[in-house]
Design a protein that fits this description.
This protein has about 325 residues and is mainly beta. Helices cover about 10% and strands about 45% of the residues. Helix 2 packs across helix 3.
């Protein structure tokens, strides 16, 4: 069911104080929707709004994608700089997780992905040396930088485990979920596998520097055609991720096609829920906690999406 339409690039779905919150990456705005009528525009963020989160005292944190900053909305509504990450990010800043202590974890593209994708199929990213890797920035509650993770392949959506001991990160371009244990000071330890979302054989072929790799990348480019891709079941490029109600399995927004996929640790696919368009973010929430929300788009390119107004929030009660 389409709950909201006419959006640019809806992303970063969050449930906060009984309402759905989300960013619109194409218009740089943050919205709140209580389930009735039109969503409220909470604020417009310089440099396009990205990831969202809240400090323990309720103040909103929001990523500025193009500025490479995190902003904080004070209680009087003023927007102030919380952190400057321009010396860290290798492309647009992106999604963000804020933990119960107010520590923020911020990912970034690592390079100008949209400039590349406007000219080339995504599969050609894997021609050696492959896409650049980039770290997740770990911020203290006051916004100061306390650490960087090891470089990852397009770190995107993030989740904190129920016991607070690890962060699960969607590495979109690696087509996997990765676990990063949390140190006592809030920094993140080295990556550990959580779920591979592409077959090991295909991953090796895609990254092969020789003729086999060249052929695989060219065939994959042909299979990227929307009419073909939407009928495929593999691989899964994880964008936004969300815990299921069981607290153990993860819902994954598949950026390659119109679906949300529930996976167990290790990568076994347990459920698939179809959406009408490519899916960038998902969330299991609602007043009863049983509604799967999905942010879907005809294109994830903000420059193309803004005039189209084809972004949607879809919802399915499970």
């Amino acid at each position: 069911m389409v709950a909201l339409g006419g959006l640019g690039v809806p992303e970063s779905l969050r449930w906060h104080q009984g309402a759905l919150w989300f960013s619109d990456l194409a218009h740089g705005t943050v919205h709140r929707w209580d389930g009735s009528g039109e969503p409220e525009t909470v604020l417009k963020v310089p440099g396009r709004a990205g990831g969202l989160g809240w400090l323990p005292d309720g103040r909103l944190l929001v990523v500025s994608m193009d500025e490479g900053r995190v902003y904080r909305q004070e209680t009087d509504g003023e927007l102030v700089e919380h952190a400057d990450l321009r010396h860290i990010v290798g492309g647009p800043a992106n999604d963000m997780l804020v933990d119960p202590q107010g520590r923020a974890y911020v990912g970034n593209f690592g390079f100008d992905y949209h400039a590349f994708s406007r000219k080339h199929p995504d599969s050609l990213l894997y021609a050696p040396p492959g896409p650049p890797r980039t770290p997740v920035a770990c911020l203290a509650p006051d916004g100061s930088l306390i650490g960087l993770t090891e470089p990852l392949l397009f770190p995107n959506g993030m989740l904190l485990t129920a016991d607070g001991t690890a962060v699960v990160v969607a590495e979109t371009l690696a087509m996997r979920l990765t676990c990063l244990p949390v140190h006592t000071d809030g920094t993140l330890a080295g990556p550990q596998p959580w779920a591979a979302l592409i077959s090991p054989l295909l991953w090796r072929l895609l990254n092969n520097p020789g003729l086999l790799g060249h052929i695989t990348r060219r065939i994959s480019a042909l299979l990227d055609h929307p009419a073909i891709a939407k009928r495929s079941a593999s691989p899964v490029a994880p964008d936004g991720i969300a815990w299921d109600t069981d607290g153990e399995t993860v819902w994954v927004a598949n950026a390659l096609r119109g679906e949300c996929v529930r996976v167990a640790e290790g990568g076994r696919v347990l459920d698939r829920v179809a959406t009408s368009q490519h899916t960038l973010s998902c969330l299991m929430a609602g007043h009863d906690g049983r509604t799967l929300f999905a942010a879907t788009v005809p294109t994830n390119d903000p420059a193309r999406a803004a005039p189209l107004g084809g972004g949607r929030i879809e919802m399915v009660r499970l």
